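Section 4.2 – Deliverable D4.2 (structural model, holo form)

The reporting period included a commitment to supply a predicted holo structure for the target in complex with flavin mononucleotide. Inputs used:
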Amino acid sequence: MQSLITKAVPTGVCIVTVRAGEKINGMTVAWATQVSFKPRLVAVSIAPPRFTYGLVKESGFFCINALSENEMKLARHFGFKSGRKTDKFKGIEYENALHGSPILKNAFAYLECEVKDIFPSGDHDIFVGEVVDAGEIKKDARPLIFRWDDFFGKK
Ligand SMILES: Cc1cc2nc3c(=O)[nH]c(=O)nc-3n(C[C@H](O)[C@H](O)[C@H](O)COP(=O)(O)O)c2cc1C
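Output (structure tokens):
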């Protein structure tokens, strides 16, 4: 069932990064999408147990880093361990967006967003953010499309 839902609603794979004071972290997400033109709003679904969840609440900003199809390894790096226990940024090159969220050097585009709303939604919360900074890092990149089986095996 889960694999089928993912096939029926195709999405890209991104890394949501955040800076809260001295702390920076990032986590892989597949559930991110634009939800309004005016203002420019983007929504990302984050489960409360993620370390990133509390950091985004604390910071009020997050940054979506879009991954190209050759960045599976980076998606796994940020998606299978928690920043609570490891520094996922060790050895990872980044710059700072306007409000300090990390922009990964290996992303092809980024959107830094200011949190405007948080809606509970089942076992995740939906963070709606207004785009406050954006950039294209690599032109002509092909996005990494989320296929359930590629990351989590058959289900
Ligand atoms: C491909 C992929 C997609 C993911 N998508 C999401 C997502 O949309 N929302 C979410 O809450 N977790 C998602 N996760 C799980 C988090 O990335 C994972 O739990 C991560 O370790 C959390 O890191 P943190 O504790 O440092 O925040 C995804 C993981 C992978 C591998």
